[in-house]
């Protein structure tokens, strides 16, 4: 259980922050950049939810919870010591990736195949989902970069890769099942 009885601690005033295992690192470290960008994705999902209803809102709520799981995973290095930890760290599970895949497949089955690239936009929900997509791609790049230097849960990277695909499919669904997608016209303004 988390208890926040004081919001500021002053422990980061020198430019360092604590990871989930208590280690202190620079606030610009690759690990902090990765999980900080996951937090940014979560905020963009919160904005998208202002325009979502029903099943879409419920799916986005699940994704927000998964993103907190992902942040908890990424803020906890030393995967090789998970078994020894006093409190087992929360790690993203392959089942969370598989759920995204199933949802992507279900949305894609309802969409006409694309014959052009689409521009981010359309309905307010679709535009917000495209923003979620691009920020999640950045989070993925940062997580992959981190994985080149330190151990990262492979399911975390897979989740981020699928998540941007999920947002793409959801953006199309939010554009009247793709009928109102804004199509790219190559060279239209030459």
From TrEMBL:
Key words, A-Z? ATP-binding, Cobalamin biosynthesis, Cytoplasm, Nucleotide-binding, Transferase
What GO terms in the biological process aspect are recorded for it? cobalamin biosynthetic process
Q: What is its EC number?
A: 2.5.1.17
Which molecular function GO terms apply here? ATP binding; corrinoid adenosyltransferase activity
Domain Cobalamin adenosyltransferase-like, chain residue ranges per copy: 7-173
Tell me if Glycoprotein is a UniProt keyword of this record.
no
Assigned GO CC terms: cytoplasm
The top EC class is transferase
Named in its record, the pathway it takes part in is: Cofactor biosynthesis; adenosylcobalamin biosynthesis; adenosylcobalamin from cob(II)yrinate a,c-diamide: step 2/7
What compartments host this protein? Cytoplasm
Catalytic activity reads: 2 cob(II)alamin + reduced [electron-transfer flavoprotein] + 2 ATP = 2 adenosylcob(III)alamin + 2 triphosphate + oxidized [electron-transfer flavoprotein] + 3 H(+); 2 cob(II)yrinate a,c diamide + reduced [electron-transfer flavoprotein] + 2 ATP = 2 adenosylcob(III)yrinate a,c-diamide + 2 triphosphate + oxidized [electron-transfer flavoprotein] + 3 H(+)
Keyword Flavoprotein recorded: no
Q: Which family does it belong to?
A: Belongs to the Cob(I)alamin adenosyltransferase family.
Q: What is this protein called?
A: Corrinoid adenosyltransferase
Identify the species of origin.
Harenicola maris
């Amino acid at each position: 259980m988390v208890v926040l009885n004081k919001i500021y601690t002053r422990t980061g005033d020198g430019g360092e922050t604590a990871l989930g295992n208590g280690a202190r690192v620079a606030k610009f470290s690759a690990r902090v950049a990765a999980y900080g960008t996951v937090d940014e994705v979560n905020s963009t999902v919160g904005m998208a939810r202002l325009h979502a209803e029903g099943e879409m809102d419920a799916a986005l709520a699940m994704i927000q919870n998964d993103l907190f799981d992902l942040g908890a995973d990424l803020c906890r290095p030393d995967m090789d010591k998970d078994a020894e930890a006093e409190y087992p760290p929360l790690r993203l599970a392959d089942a969370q990736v598989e759920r995204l895949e199933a949802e992507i497949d279900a949305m894609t089955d309802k969409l006409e195949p694309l014959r052009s690239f689409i521009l981010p936009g359309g309905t307010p929900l679709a535009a917000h989902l495209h923003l979620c997509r691009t920020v999640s791609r950045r989070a993925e790049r940062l997580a992959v970069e981190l994985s080149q230097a330190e151990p990262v849960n492979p399911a975390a990277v897979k989740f981020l890769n699928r998540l941007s695909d999920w947002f793409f499919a959801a953006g199309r669904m939010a554009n009247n099942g793709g009928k109102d997608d804004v199509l790219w016209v190559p060279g239209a303004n030459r």
